[in-house]
Amino acid sequence: MKLPVIIATIISFSLSSSGWAQALDTVKLGWLASLTDAALFIAIKKNYFAEERIEISATEFKSGANMVLPLGTGELDAAAGSPSAGLYNAIGRDIKILIVADKTRSSPGYSGSHMIIRKDLVETGRFKSLVDLKGLKLALNGPGNSNTATVNFALTSAGLRYDDINVVDLSFPDHLIALQNRSVDGSNLVEPFASAAVARGLAIRVASDDVIDPQHQLANILFSSKFAAKKELGVRFMRAYLRGARFYLEALKDSRFAGTTAEEVISILAEFTAIKDKAILRSIMPSGIDPNGTVNISSLQKDADFYLSRGWLQNKINIADVVDHTFVDEASKSLGRIR
Question: Is it the case that residue 310 has pLDDT exceeding 50?
Fold first, then answer.
């Protein structure tokens, strides 16, 4: 299978005083080139990978599901994606993939996932609280992912079941169209689409994932088994990544990009993502990330158990068996662990 390389980032870096450049290790990375890949973008732009003698060759994918096969075969070394029923089913078929670090989580005040309801339904009183989700038609982005888990936890908190809503599966950009033509009543949307829906007067934000399910693990860094076997290289990769994550965290303040590194992070996001308008980036609520890269295993397990109950997951999976904290533990030890 030949991978369609959309973006290739090649960085050369001289590491010796004599001027001779040491050979760089190439890491083949899959990503969505979305806002939640910010720590990777930063690590590239700030030369953190280059300083670890690594060059990144990145391939952009349309969905995390499309990364699973090339990651399993070793055509990709690493990937930035969301754990899903599809990933877990692949692991259940003995496709060797490891979850090695946090990439996105809903920390208090910082969430990239938001439940929104059409503005007219709120204004007329049809929707007042989460219990009023019953009978509504919600746009989601496909079964067996963290988006569906968020909605399930919202329903459960209101004494409802997943079957109490009607689900329409659409790509995130199509959620806005469906809200505009009133073919759906609401949505659970990621940024920047959630803020765009609110700004256009299509919907009102009624809950965010950081409130619905605090510390919800939404996305992770994944390693192929072949790459994970290269322990020293994997640790170097993770050290650069965590430096990017910590720089990103310094940009967060008051649920916005308003911290000390905000303007630089916004510029990097505008360079690497499809969102070129910096005003939009300043207006959205960013997602959180753990500064030490620690994976919230219990959160992933809760999601996986929900997928199993819906029949999206073929067999029960023990998430602890597929999480390897070796790389983040070594990297955070050398960088200094943040408490």
Answer: yes
